[in-house]
Amino acid sequence: MEGVEEEKIMAVEEGLSIEAAEATAHQISHDPWYQVGFVLTTGINSAYVLGYSGSIMVSLGWVAGAVGLVLAAAISLYANCLIARLHEVGGKRHIRYRDLAGHIYGRKMYALTWALQYINLFMINTGYIILAGQALKAVYVLYSNDGDLKLPYCIIIAGTVCALFAFGIPHLSALRVWLGFSTLFSFIYIIIAIVLSARDGIKSPPRDYNIPGSKESKIFTTIGACASLVFAYNTGMLPEIQATVKPPVIKNMEKALWFQFTIGGLPLYAVTFMGYWAYGSSTSGYLLNNVTGPVWVKTAANIAAFLQTVIALHIFASPMYEYLDTRYGRGKGDAFSFHNLSFRVFVRGGYLTVNTFVAALLPFLGDFMSLTGALSTFPLTFVLANHMYLMVKKNKMSSLQKAWHWLNVCGFSLLAAAATIAAVRLIVVDSRTYHLFADL
């Protein structure tokens, strides 16, 4: 690969020397499992959690919503462990999702997987910029009602700050101390949202927990909420995250996954259930718009949500950055040399400019979560994971195990198709209700 020193990163696991299948400009085999666990936890406890009361619980209700969140976590842990165990196939470490798919299926599947992953990460990044813009707008509204600073302007500001952060963080492993800040910011807005929601719920009269809408719309919103359920837990970039972990790679990645889906998931449950309990079917798509309390407390929560979103976006943009840096950008030398820094400014700035434009154009956050889950999270995390595991391990499986994986492949394929239709319908309906560049 041009401009990149050919790296052979050796990892010793179970007595075997296993090298990365491809060169990369970013660091691999560098991080302890707990740092990777915090990367994963940062993803699931990002400011997106402030939207799950409205996008999941309002659409499903108490029983289906609570069961769905727990069931989605269990299924997601299982599917992600399958992917983690396929990290070393054919005597090579596959440090990108597309590399793994290409090794198993061939060049066409390599391209299709890359396209699905790009869509997934692009939509997630766009949603993060919408979230950051909403947080800024919420702070402004706390102090002024003149309406001069509209949501599209806030989204532009948010996109600019995200770009500035991306210029200074060369690769995923370099986040390090920022993961600590991210965890702190997450605790701030989650704790504030829980406390203020609980106070509002205690003071409020009985809430309405009925699922809103007509019979037809309830069907589509339920399907869309199922896509949001899987979106809540999955990154669509597990091999890229696993590439950063120190040997033994598979065992350490499984430790990180168990951390994510046990301790790491508790804040998500707490804020989602408390928000829905406090406001019922009137819960908004951004929980901090519902809560009442001291202005300075709400300001702190929104600023923390904004800052955490800037950090979390970098995680989900890192596969794109890695591809661009490896293929076109960084060679030898300091990551902050003039050449490498100017390359990041030009390329990452351009990528985030497109994200920011789409975010300002269609700022419908709940719809983005549904569409992202349908288009890419279902296929990448569930359909492909089970089928790839079948392809690699089929000679070691019983007939019952094969039937189980085929059931997952077929079932999640049907769910992906239904969820895509539901998500597109939601976006069309909202596009009719709200004009482009809407000030929601």
UniProtKB/TrEMBL annotation:
UniProt-listed Pfam families: Aa_trans
Keyword Protein biosynthesis: no
Location of the protein in the cell: Membrane
Keyword annotations of the record: Amino-acid transport, Membrane, Transmembrane, Transmembrane helix, Transport
Name listed for the protein in its UniProt record: Proline transporter 2
Stretches assigned to the Amino acid transporter transmembrane domain: 33-424
PANTHER family: OS05G0424000 PROTEIN-RELATED
GO cellular component: membrane
